[in-house]
Amino acid sequence: MKADLNPGRTTRQPTFRELYTPKLVTVIREGYGLPQFQADLLAGLTVAIVALPLSMAIAIASGVSPDRGLYTAIIGGFLVSALGGSRFQIGGPAGAFIVLVAATVARHGVEGLILATMMSGAFLVAAGYLRLGTYVKFIPYPVTVGFTSGIAVIIFASQLSELFGLTLPGKEPGELIEKLIALGEAAGTVNPAAVGVAALTIGVILGLKRLRPTWPGMLIAVAAAALAAYAFGLPVETIGSRFGGIPRSLPLPSLPAFSLEQVQAVFPDAVAFTLLGAIESLLSAVVADGMTGRRHRSNCELVAQGFANMGSALFGGICVTGTIARTATNVRAGAHGPVSGMLHSGFLLLFMLIAAPLASYIPLAALAGVLAVVAWNMVEKTAFAALIRSSWGDAMVLLVTFALVVFRDLTEGIVVGFALGSVLFIDRMSKSIAVDTDVPMARDDVADDRNGRRTSYEPEKASDPDTVIYRISGAFFFGAATTVGTVLDRIADQRKSFVLDCSGVPFLDSTAANVLEGAVRKAKRAGVRFFITGASPGVRRMLFAQGVKPPHVRYKATIENALQQLRDERV
C-alpha cells in the first residue's frame, strides 16, 4: 500500500495488467451488446465522413500523396482504438504533424519518412512500457497553447499557394519568411477559379457549422467544390491531375529499406515525431476524459500509439496520433467505446474500395480550404489572450514557444518553452518557502525577521534563552536552498541549542539536505546541540543519505519532545 496525499487514505498501486489492458477489453468485460454496437456503428460512420477529406488534405499538405493519409487513418486508426487506453480516442494523420512530416520528406524522401515513423513507433512503445506517459502532463499549459497556435499559423501559410492557385517557379520554401516572400513574388499568377473553389469550400463549412452543426460540413463542402469544378470545367488542379487518383485497395505490408547511416540520419526526426505524438495523443485523451467523465490509461495509450505508427509505416502510411477534433466528434456522436474507432477505419476502407475513382475530381483548392478552417480552429484564441493577460511569466513562455515554432523549429519551441516554464515554476516555488523563528522574547517585543515575517510568540517555549527554534514550511529544494541556508548561518550566534522543525516540509531534495548537513557541521564546531523535529520518513531518508544523522543531530517527533530532552539533560 502507498500513502495517498489525502490523510487517512491509502491507495493500491495498479498492476502491470491493469495499466496495459486495452479499453476495448474493459468495455467488453462490462457487457457489450447490440445497443452498444448500434451506437458505435453510427459514431464510427460519422467520424469516417469527417476523416475522409481531412486525411487526404493532411497527407497532401505533408508532401505525400493522399492515399498515404488514408492508409494512416485505416491502419493506424484501427490499432489506436483496438489497443489504446482511451475509450474514445480516434487515431489518424494530424494537422500538428504537417510541418514535421513535410520537413522530413524534404530532407530524406518518403522512404526516410516511413523509416522515421517506424522508429517513432518503437520509441513510443518503449516510452509506454517505461511509464513515461505520466510525465507528459507536466508540460506547461502556455507551451501547449503556444505550439498549437504556432502550428496553426504554419499550416495556414503552407496552404496559401493552393488557396490562391499560385504558380511558383521552383520548389516552395520551407521557412515561413522565405515562403511568404516567394508567394508574394508569385502574386501575379493568382488563379481566380482556385480562389472561388477555396472560398466556396470555406463558406459551406462555416455555413453548415452555424445552420446545420450535425451535418458533415467538410465532406459536403469538398463534394460541392468537386461537383462545381467538374460541372463548370474550372481550370483547377485536382487529386487526379497531380497524383493520378488514389488506389482502390491497401498495399501489401513491407518493411522500409534502411541502413545504419539512414537510421542515424532520420533519428532526430523520429525523436520529434515521438515527442509530438505523445503530447498530442495524451492531450486528446484528456479532452475525451473531460467530455465523458472517464479516465484513460496514459501508458497503455502510448504503447498503442507506438504499434499504430509501426503498423502505419508497414503499409506506407505516415505518422499516427490521437486527433482532438475527430475524438471530440466521436464523443458527440454517441460512441460507447473503442469499437466506434475500429468501425471508423472500416468505413474509410470501404469508401476507398468503392469511391476511389471519385476522389480524382477533388480540387486541391478545396482541400486547402478544409485545412484553412482546421488551422483557424486549432488556434486557442481565448486561451492565448487569457495567458497574455495573466502574468508576465506565462506570457513570456507562450510568446517564446509560439515564435520559435513559427520561425525556427517545432521541437526547439517545445523544449525551450518547457525549460522556461520550469525555470518560472522553480522561481515561484522558491519564493513560497517560509522560515519562521520562535526566538524567545517578551510579548511586546514581537519583531519582524529578515524575510519580513512576524515571529510567533509561544510563552511555554520562552523559558530557555539559550535555545532557538526555527520552522521551515514548504517544499525545501535547490531553488530555496540559498534563502534557507542564509537563515541557518545564524544558528551558532549566542545559542547553545537549536531546534529545526520540518513538520511543514512535504519534500526535501539532495541540495536542501546538503545545506542542512553544512548547518549541522557548523553547529558541531560551535558546540551547539542540533535537533530536527517532525521530519517525515521520506525527508529523514534523504537527510540520512547526505550524512545528517545521529550522533551529530537528534531526531524528535515534535518540538515539545526536543525541549523536554533539553530540560532532562540539565537536571
From TrEMBL:
Ranges of residues in domain STAS: 457-566
A biological-process GO annotation: transmembrane transport
Subcellular location per the Swiss-Prot or TrEMBL entry: Membrane
Protein name: Sulfate transporter family protein
Chief location bin: membrane
Keyword Signal (UniProt): no
One cellular component (GO) term of this entry: membrane
Parts of the chain that traverse the membrane: 41-61, 73-106, 112-132, 139-160, 180-208, 215-233, 270-290, 302-325, 345-376, 397-426, 468-488
UniProt membrane topology term: Multi-pass membrane protein
UniProt keyword Transmembrane helix present: yes
Coiled-coil stretches: none
Keywords, in A-Z order: Membrane, Transmembrane, Transmembrane helix
